[in-house]
């Protein structure tokens, strides 16, 4: 298995196609010597960011199956999404405003969203009471430490606008949103993906 990023596929998309184990970033060998076959797995975790190759938030992954025998061969490939820190977050749906209420200073509420096309979008925040900070990141573990986009709103409406040419904008990857209450007043706001 190999990967190629949305940011460089136009340079050489064929580099993502695996030719053999030497050109693969991850590989596994199976040998059907028993009835029912053999099973091997390759596991990628979101936290695997420091190794090489590493987990990629905005990549396409290519799987190549090479059959090394001349006999008739049958194989199955399946993919399973593993639970991680972002799995339990509720998902924002486009054009559906979510009401968020936070009663303690420093408390946070979380959500996530995914985009299937690279059209510009907005995250609209309407603060009914209190002051809130909205942070957006691709990493659920570091939303507030290293946000891609951020907005602080005290009363009224504000938007985070992301254009199609924003270098931080990738489609087909989850974005994670943190809404934090900043002052002593209870915060109530509406969050909408447009």
Describe the model.
The protein has 194 residues and is mostly beta strands. The protein has two domains: 1-82, no CATH class; 98-193, Jelly Rolls. The protein contains no helices and eight strands. Strands 3, 4, 5, 6, 7 and 8 form a six-stranded antiparallel β-sheet that branches. It starts with a strand and ends with a strand. The model has no long low-confidence stretch (mean pLDDT 82).
SSE arrangement:
Blueprint: E1 2-5, E2 59-62, E3 98-102, E4 108-114, E5 121-137, E6 149-162, E7 174-181, E8 187-193
Major sheet summary line: 6 strands, antiparallel
Shape type: elongated
Distance between the termini: 35 Å
The CATH class label of the largest domain is Mainly Beta
Give the key terms:
194 residues; mainly beta; Jelly Rolls; six-stranded antiparallel beta sheet; two-stranded antiparallel sheet; 8 strands
Summed up, what is this model?
It contains no helices and eight strands. With 194 residues, it is mostly beta strands.
